[in-house]
Amino acid sequence: MHEITIEWPAEANEQGRPMRWFGSWLVGGKGGEGRWFYSGTGGGAESYVVPAEATGVRIRRWPSDGLDAEYADILNVPPAMRVSADALDFDVRQPFSLLPEEFH
After folding, report:
1. Which pLDDT value is given to residue 94?
2. Strand 20-27 and strand 32-40: pairing?
3. Using CA atoms, how far apart are residues 59 and 72, in angstroms rounded to an integer?
4. Which residues, at least 6 apart from 12, have a Cβ–Cβ distance to it below 8 Å?
5. Looking at residues 98-102, what average pLDDT do you find?
6. 19 and 11 in contact (C-beta within 8 Å)?
7. Which phi and psi angles does 43 have, rounded to 5°?
8. Predicted confidence (pLDDT) per residue in 30-68, tens digit
9. Does the pTM exceed 0.70?
10. HEC states along the chain?
């Protein structure tokens, strides 16, 4: 059984309000999203059992009110993993991005 522990930091967004975080499972080989497992403003770490159908994890954050979320994917989760959401690289083109190359 695989398990991932995610540290959800309590950070402020650009407007000084708590940043919103969202976690969901990736399923299949095309970046499809499955069930979500976290929605909140952080401030702790939580562990999640990785479902058998999951091929990865998608973490979203909203650094600015009124704009779309940024996201980072974690693929091929090992049997035991610990990650801090704020350590993920939200500025790099993600494997399943639908945006044209010039937008990255």
Report:
1. 65
2. antiparallel
3. 5
4. 18, 19
5. 56
6. yes
7. 110, 15
8. 888 899 999 999 999 999 999 999 999 999 999 999 898
9. yes
10. CCEEEEEECCCECCCCCECEEEEEEEECCCCEEEEEEEEECCCEEEEEECCCCEEEEEEEEECCCCCCCEEEEEECCCCEEEEEHHHCCCCCCCCCCCCCHHHC
Cα–Cα distance between 38 and 92 in angstroms, integer?
23
Tell me the two tokens of residue 46. Answer: 């939580």
Q: Which two tokens stand for residue 26?
A: 């990736």
What token pair was written down for 41?
Answer: 């403003």
Q: Pairing state of beta strands 70-75 and 44-49?
A: unpaired
Tell me which residue has tokens 């309590």.
10
Q: Which residues of 44-58 are buried (b: 16+ CB within 10 A; e: fewer)?
A: eeeebebeeebbbbb
Please answer whether residues 44 and 85 qualify as being in contact, where contact means their C-beta atoms are separated by less than 8 angstroms: no
Contact 40, 11 (CB under 8 A): no
